[in-house]
Design brief:
CATH architecture: 2-Layer Sandwich
Radius of gyration: 15 Å
Helix content: 25-40%
Number of domains: 1
Oligomer: single chain
Number of helices: 4
Order of helices and strands: EEEHEHEEHH
Structural class: alpha+beta
């Protein structure tokens, strides 16, 4: 398998909801290695820096958030997901992947952007339970 190399800043958003999802402020992963590997993510505490929220112009934040919502809806996701992509120098945001079971620890890139967006981990859990109950009503 071959893929085009995309050079840019790694920017991620957390999404929460079913039919009418909401999106967090974006976070940025700044790898201190050639790429954000398993080792850089989990084993080397100096492997990467997380900048939450990412330092971006409001217009760029809005574009990234809109893309995250579109991807979430297009893929018919429910509950939660993290949408990852790359912000290129020309301002284009290129979607790279969606994580439908993102990490949920206190240092994970799913709850951390919600914290700066005003939603705590406990509130996320409450909302996820409510979303599941709402989806399964008879």
């Amino acid at each position: 398998m071959c893929e085009e190399m995309i050079t840019g800043r790694e920017i991620e958003c957390s999404v929460l909801g079913n039919e009418n999802p909401i999106v967090s402020l974006p976070g940025e992963v700044i790898s201190h290695r050639e790429f954000y590997s398993y080792e850089a993510k989990y084993l080397d505490k100096n492997g990467a820096q997380l900048k939450i929220p990412a330092e971006l112009p409001d217009k760029t934040i809005q574009k990234i958030q809109e893309t995250a919502i579109k991807v979430f809806k297009l893929l018919r996701c429910q509950g939660m997901a993290r949408v990852d992509g790359f912000l290129q120098e020309n301002g284009d945001y290129v979607f790279s992947e969606i994580n439908t079971i993102p990490g949920f620890t206190s240092i994970s890139m799913y709850p951390k952007p919600w914290e700066v967006s005003g939603i705590s981990q406990l509130e996320i859990i409450d909302r996820l339970i409510q979303l599941a109950l709402d989806k399964n009503k008879f």
